[in-house]
Amino acid sequence: MADGPLIVQSDKTLLLEVDHPGAAEARAAVAPFAELERSPEHVHTYRITPLALWNARAAGHDAEQVVDALVRHSRYAVPHALLVDVADTMDRYGRLRLENDPVHGLVLRAFDRAVLVEVARAKRIVPMLGERLDEDTIVVHPSERGRLKQALLKLGWPAEDLAGYVDGERHAIALVEDGWNLRDYQQGAVAGFWEGGSGVVVLPAGAGKTIVGAAAMAQAGATTLILVTNTVAGRQWRHELLRRTSLTEDEIGEYSGERKEIRPVTIATYQVMTARRKGEYLHLDLFGARDWGLIIYDEVHLLPAPVFRMTADIQSRRRLGLTATLVREDGREGDVFSLIGPKRYDAPWREIESQGWIAPAECTEVRVTLTDDERMAYAVAEPEERYRMCATARSKRAVVRRLVERHAGDRVLVIGAYLDQLDELGQMLDAPVIQGSTRTRERERLFEAFRTGEITTLVVSKVANVSIDLPEAGVAVQVSGTFGSRQEEAQRLGRVLRPKADGRSAHFYTVVSRDTVDQEYAAHRQRFLAEQGYAYTIVDADDIPDEAGSPE
Amino acid sequence: MTRPVDKAQNGSATLADWLRAQPDDMVMRLFLLRPDLATPPPPDFAVLAARMDVRVSVTRVVDRLDTFVHEVLQALTVLPAGVSLAALTAFAGGAQVAPAVRRLRELGLAWGDDTALRVVGMAVDLVGGRPLGLGRPIRQCLSSYRQGQLTRLLEALGGPADRAGTAAAAGTDPINAIGELFDDPARVRGWIERCSPRASELLNRLAAESSLGSTTAANRVLPVEKARTPIEELLARGLIIGIDGETVELPREVGLAVRGQTPAGPLHPLPPRAEGTEIGVASADGAAALAARTVVRWVSTLVEAWGEAPLTPLRTGGLSVRDLRATARLLDSDERVAAFVVELAWAAGLVDATTGNDVQFMPTAAYDRWCTEPLEARWALLVESWLRSPVAAWLIGERDERGRQIAALSSDVRRGIARELRADVLRALGASPPGLAPSSASLRALLAWRAPRRTGTFLDRMVDSTVAEAELLGLTGRHAPSTVGRVIIDQLEIEHQDPARSGHLPGRPAAGDAGLCERLADALAPLLPEPVDELLLQADLTAVAPGPLVPRAAARIARMADIESVGAATVYRFTEDSLRRAFDSGLTAEDIHDDLAHWGRTGIPQALTYLIDDTARRHGRMRSGPAASYLRCDDSALLTEVVASRATQALGLRRIAPTIVISSLPVNELLAGLRGAGYAPVAEAPDGRVLLSRPPTHRTPARARPASGDVVDGRLAAARDVLRLVRRGDESARTVQAARTMDIAGFGLTRSAPLILTMLQDAVRLRQRILLGYVDQQGTPRDRIVRPTTLDGGWLTAWDELTEQPRRFALHRVTGVAELGDHGGATAPAAISPAAISPAATSPAVSSLAAQWAVPAPTDPPGADEVR
Q1: In this predicted structure, what is the pLDDT of residue B841?
Q2: Are B122 and B176 contained in the same domain?
């Protein structure tokens, strides 16, 4: 029994002791087949799930490697049942394969006849299958390629998709590396994706996912459809592509609520894709508008359900998913696996941070004691109003002001969920407010001003949670949020994690009202950040010095 | 060649004589190996010798013989009595039979010295008619032949026809005549040599197998010339005999001749080699240590849960299926494992049923002691208890002969043979070389070699379950015996070799078990990972114990944090709830900080400090307690006076706020007390209204008066009904009264079930009127005057005089019967139901009858008939 850094628990979690000398090696060994669940300061928790094992299998790892990694790095004996289960689960992937038969087109081929018999009898699967060619082969209707993979995954027999992809319409795209280069992990991500055919690249916010997308486009050298969360994010993609690649303005089209351009590279929003009139999706044609050679899904963990359904129909095109996390709040990780593809690349945040690509962040929870009047108002508030009451307490204002003053030299984002509160803060701080109703043009102007340093403080609402790139934002002050959503926390943190030119560290403040549900929600978010390995400190509002000395 | 005891042999003439001549050691060992022979102590050697030949006793011994000893025993039954060891060795084809003979002798199955070996008679019977696959002797085989077949056969065997005729004429038995011909081995060999090649081949095959063969025409004894098939030829030559229409048998004489130099056939002096998968001892030990910890954790979890909420057993005894399922969920395993763990905890005496009427399963005091021991000692106790347990846990959930599900902890799971079979399976596991996990087939082959006569489903399931349970306990790791498993196996081997040390002796405590427990614990301890006494506290409010925690720390941390993940390490999570639990159990924030500072290797993260302090701050801010009544008054001076007054000291007053005093007395008593002391309190209703204290007067809702427009006829009819009821009721009441009087006067009761039955039968036959004591479905005892009509299937059908319709009574609810005369009711009853005279129920008979009569007559007063 080696004195390894890994402890394998019977509930299929792996505990990795970070300070152990063998930790790095063990981490590299288990990362392919286990999902990092928590990474607080001393012991990181990985979990072995069927999806993780199949992801590993798709990436070319076999059960023997997995078992060997577990046994070799484990401090104690590994439960035998767990090893058997790992081998059994991994063995399920690839018993069935989707292949391209030169005569019959798309076929489902079995390497285990019994499995084929089992799945061919399943009620959900029967309508997707055609003629049985021989004992091991059944014709599949090409239009069912995606849905069949979904259904097979649900049955626990994920099929390996080897049916290949159409090349799509050629279109030369090249990276223009002037003064910057693809980072190693970005190169790794692109290579992993390209070898796998289709799939998801997991990179933390700020690690340059857009660049990975651009590099993938260059690799494909074909017309590309990019799906993003909203128009602002789309513009940023456009901006980045113009800067990083040989593409010109005329080659990039925007397909959004405002404009409907279809060009060799088209950037569309999820919103426009899911727009409906009388139950019909209006813009389904976009997928067929050109012979796309590559489809990029930005923020794949937010991919709306209708887009999944559309994606099921375009399985013969290469798909690249980009995200910071595979965890979906709706639990549809399985659909990402079967429809976009298995995970092709993953790098833990901390590792990238230690390489200096993400700004280190200091997270601070500032506790504000409510005045007696506020407490009384909170105590008698209706349950549905309570969070709003405490989150928007006026006592927070002074703290926000002091925090902004403390970081006067830096770019500060004040983030909140309630518009009244944001307006008040905007007035008090004399800073512009960006919210849902702010026009796109105005938003871009403000963001640009923020980037250039013309404005140093911005007050933003939920709209800023995702996909706006404000690399220079060094401080975020969170005053209210969406009930402790973990995903929101990750996104907001992502706002300040872009590497700073001078390498200074980022600050992430959360202002909460003491002894209220605000504090409870904060505890959820705090747990998430701690699990992500961020140092998290709690301070009392009174401990924040009033540097400007201005009267209250 | 059966064995009439031949007294003319050399050496000791009888078993008793031989026993008498044996040294003490020999006889003592016999008693140890067959304890039934020694209980009760036989008065002399003749009785002992007789006992040694008793079927039950011999069966027990023979069933435990291994294949080779069993084969030697069979050989001895084939050979003539008094055979020498040398002859036996030759018969066995030169195999080393001496140890087997020694074993048979010490078991009392064979006796006599090496020059004249004999077998006890019962052993011959038990071995059966076809030992070693040899057929029965020719004389027995021929008993199925008719005279004609015998004559033809005798002719065919070359006995001259006239000789056959002569024999027949001389009245000589043809069977004997043929038998004599077969007594000469040389002649038999001659016949065999004359056979056609195909017939020889058939002979060889029969001799190698069971000596029996199936055919369609086993009875056709043709002349040799007419024989077409090999079977016909052999039948014609008498080398096989048709014993019924479809079976032929190779007679023993022929079989021995065919087998030639190895008359005993192939013997199996050595057990089959163990085969399986090579695991390696280290790997097995690793898995075993893990299993040992898991099983101890399971048992602790289970017993703790039962300690919090004891379980109520089924009425028939044992654990309900629902509780078993809940246990499985609790242990996060399947029901099979749950059943095993439940029985294990029981066997170890950690849980037990309470005594008394309200039986519950709950932890015993032994559990608290067990908890304080180190893990290896806790485990050792479990293993040792399991080893000696008569429980076959796999039976749980199976159906018994009556189709009922067998419950855990019921007596149905206890089987006398389980312990011995378990030991045998473990020994068989132990026979594999170190680090080898024997395959199931290999294990079964070895068990079959060791006790060939033992077969059956029970054994099969016992093998499977023992293998599985040994794995759960860590006696095997990945199915290869672990180092700790070897300790058990060695102990079992010693007990097997030396019955004096065995725990199998009835009425004797298992010898050396205390030592076994210690040896087990000592063997496990080095395999277990070193316990850790440190925690890694993290900012996400988890604490990780990176290995098994020392018991003190584990108990302490379990009070303040929830367990999130178990295994080699333990992950704890601090939550507000878990900390509140800690505070509730009496810990303070300082205690928790101190503990964590002591065990936390990396310091306490700030987030955790805040959580502890925040929770501590909120803990106990609100107080709650019981009070029977309160006294409130806006004038706190008045309350001070009341509390201080000497007159109110008995009222149990306690001031909990300046304007509130509570009392342990109910409101009315408090009010009375205060008034007595000269105060003027007013009572408040629960909703705060002032209650006026007028003396209460009681009223019930008025009954609706019947409409006055009823027709007179209706009234009359009703009145008549009432009168009839009254008369009938009056009669019953008098009857019952009379019966009571008589009972008090000491007349006999008919309470006994058989007597009740007889009386009821008589009553049916004679159409008698009887008083029936009966317990109805609600359990209320009632008395009925009935006229029984039929009695069958446990049901009495009778005319019920009260309801005036036939009614069925379940016999098992009849509590007593009294004979009544025909109408008039003055006849003294012969007996009375016990229900009617039960002193506890105040004359339920009368009251219940009265209640029934009252029901149909709510409208008019009784006696309306008289008015008319």
Answers
A1: 38
A2: no
Residues B396 and B293 in one domain: yes
Q: Whole-model pTM?
A: 0.69
For position B748, what pLDDT does the model report?
46
Range of the domain at B811: 712-854
Indicate the residue among B618, B640, B657 that finishes a domain.
B618
Q: B721-748: per-residue pLDDT in tens?
A: 666 666 666 666 666 666 666 554 444 4
A45 to chain B, any CB pair closer than 8 A? The answer is yes
Cβ–Cβ gap B568/A77 under 8 Å: yes
CA distance B544 to chain A (A): 7
Q: What is the mean pLDDT of residues A390-410?
A: 88
Q: B341 with B431, same domain? A: yes
Whether residues B609 and B637 share a domain: the answer is no
Angstrom distances, CA of residue A179 to CA of A182, A208, A243 = 10, 15, 11
Question: Does residue B95 lie in a domain region?
Answer: yes
Nearest residue in B to A540, CA atom:
B610
Check if the beta carbon of residue B496 is closer than 8 Å to that of residue B502: yes
Indicate yes or no: CB of A42 within 8 angstroms of CB of B602: yes
Q: A15 at the B interface (CB within 8 A)?
A: yes
* CB-CB under 8 Å, A537 with B606: yes
How far does A309 lie from chain B, in Å, by closest CA? 37
B28: CATH: 1.10.10
In this structure, the number of other CB atoms found within 10 A of the CB of residue B352 comes to 17
How many domains does chain B contain in total? Answer: 6
Alpha-carbon span A184 to B780, nearest angstrom:
89
Q: Which two tokens stand for residue B139?
A: 């004389």
Q: Do A15 and B571 touch (CB under 8 A)?
A: yes
Cis-peptide, bond into residue B858, ω within 30° of zero: no
Q: For residue B437, give every residue at least 6 positions away whose Cβ sits within 8 Å of its Cβ, in sequence order, or none.
A: B276, B277, B278, B279, B284, B476, B478, B479, B480
Q: Does residue B373 share a domain with residue B239?
A: no
Q: Which residues of B touch A531 (CB under 8 A)?
A: 540
Q: Report the DSSP beta bridge partners of residue A101.
A: A105
Kindly report the backbone phi and psi dihedral angles of residue A472, in degrees, each rounded to the nearest multiple of 5, phi listed first: -90, -5
Within 523-552 of A, beta carbons closer than 8 Å to B belong to 523, 526-527, 530-531, 535-538
Quote the minimal CA–CA distance from A80 to chain B in Å.
Answer: 7
In a domain, residue B10? The reply is no
- Convert A17-47 into a string of H (helix), E (strand) and C (coil): ECCCCCHHHHHHHHCCCCEEEECCCCEEEEE
Q: Domain containing B833 — which CATH number?
A: 2.30.30.100
Contact (CB, 8 A) for B379 and B474: yes
* pLDDT (0 to 100) of residue B299: 94
Q: Are residues B797 and B819 in the same domain?
A: yes
pLDDT tens digits along B560-618: 999 888 888 899 999 999 999 999 988 899 999 999 999 888 888 888 998 999 899 88
Q: Is 70 exceeded by the pLDDT of residue A142?
A: yes
pLDDT tens readout for residues B488-544:
998 888 888 876 655 444 334 444 456 888 888 999 988 888 888 889 998 888 999
Residue B6 lies in a domain: no
B109 shares its domain with B149: no
Specify whether B422 is located in the same domain as B483: yes
Q: Which residues numbered 69-128 in A keep a CB inside 8 Å of some CB on B?
A: 75-77, 79-80
Inter-chain touch A79–B529, beta carbons under 8 Å: no
- What residues of B are in contact with residue A8 (Cβ under 8 Å)? 567-568
Question: What distance in Å separates the CA atoms of residue A214 and residue A221, rounded to the nearest whole number?
Answer: 10
